[in-house]
Amino acid sequence: MFSSFTFEGNLYDFSEAPQRAPIGIFDSGVGGLTVLHQLYRQLPNESIIYFGDTARLPYGIRSQTEILQFAREILTWMQQKHVKMVVMACNTSSALALEAVREEFSMPILGLILPGARAAVNSGKRIGVIATAATAKSNAYRHAILEINPNVQVWQVSCPEFVPLIEQNRIYEPYTLQVVRSYLEPLLQHEIDTLVYGCTHYPLLAPVLRSLLPSHVKLVDPAQYVVAACAQDLDILGLRNTYPPLPTRFAVSGCPQQFAQSSLQWLGYTPATEPVQLTNVTFSSL
Questions:
Q1: Three-state DSSP class for 48?
Q2: Is the same domain home to 132 and 146?
Q3: What is the pLDDT at residue 281?
Q4: Which UniProt keywords apply (predicted)?
Q5: Which of 115, 153, 260, 286 is the most exposed place for a label (fewest CB within 10 A)?
Q6: Residue 279: what pLDDT?
């Protein structure tokens, strides 16, 4: 499983120390940076390869067939980079593709739905989920939450405008506040006590959401809990890295400059980002 790869002109060999191999993360765009932040916080010694499928975002409007194909292509690329584990930093992929690809790839692959559902059940009894259209349609969170505790109540809202607004860095515009208010209205009418971020982009809207939600409503970020699960699996497999990490490697299927510019406010620096062409990728003009 583990071999070597070249990064920034240096050859790294993982065959003698497989725990030094990187963790792969992928999302449609900058949303997965919320998972990256949790990895930095909880697993600071891990090296990371981040892939943003920006040529094909948003994922939330895609079919299950498309999402499964995208996941296969990205995971194949990551397998070639000799990652030791992959975190699907995308709820849509977790909902529509995780079960299938786990049977097709040898490395451990973690998704967001189950960790997020467990955290939601531990948080409250009246649970709202905001998600992409595809994730909401799949009912993945509803099924997972009710399987854990059939006595809670769950309401879902599809929020198709959120990802484009976040990717365009329009979070603090008056229009975005209006959109957020309209999506939250039905959940507030149900008097929710917990709100689950059903998309990794959505924590980036936290200041806007918090300004509109009652103070008692708890926000559940599945990113925090999937990384905790990642840490547990690394320990079980004996793959937690104790060496200094390599610099995070960023790659995208679309425009590297646009991703780097969008990432600046979330990372605090402009990441060096490389373009990667995956099999069957149709590039949009950015």
A1: strand
A2: yes
A3: 43
A4: Cell shape, Cell wall biogenesis/degradation, Isomerase, Peptidoglycan synthesis
A5: 286
A6: 67
Over residues 71-80, the pLDDT tens digits come to 999 999 999 9
105 and 117 within one domain:
no
The answer to whether the annotation marks 50 as part of a ligand binding site is no
Q: Determine the 3-state secondary structure of 55 from DSSP.
A: helix
Q: Is 6 labeled as ligand-binding?
A: no
Handedness of CA 139, 123, 50, 3 (dihedral sign): negative
Give domain status of residue 246, yes or no.
yes
Q: What residues are labeled active site?
A: 90, 199
SS3 assignment, position 105: coil
Q: What is the pTM of this model?
A: 0.90
Whether 284 is covered by a domain: the verdict is no
* 91 marked ligand binding residue: yes
Q: 276 and 77 in contact (C-beta within 8 Å)?
A: yes
Q: Is 92 annotated as a binding residue?
A: yes
Residue 158: give the domain boundaries: 113-222
According to the annotation, is 200 in a ligand binding site? yes
Backbone phi and psi for residue 198, each to the nearest 5 degrees, phi listed first: -85, 20
In this structure, what is the dihedral angle of CA atoms 199, 43, 50, 26, given to the nearest 10 degrees?
Answer: -40
Q: Please check whether residues 107 and 117 belong to one and the same domain.
A: no
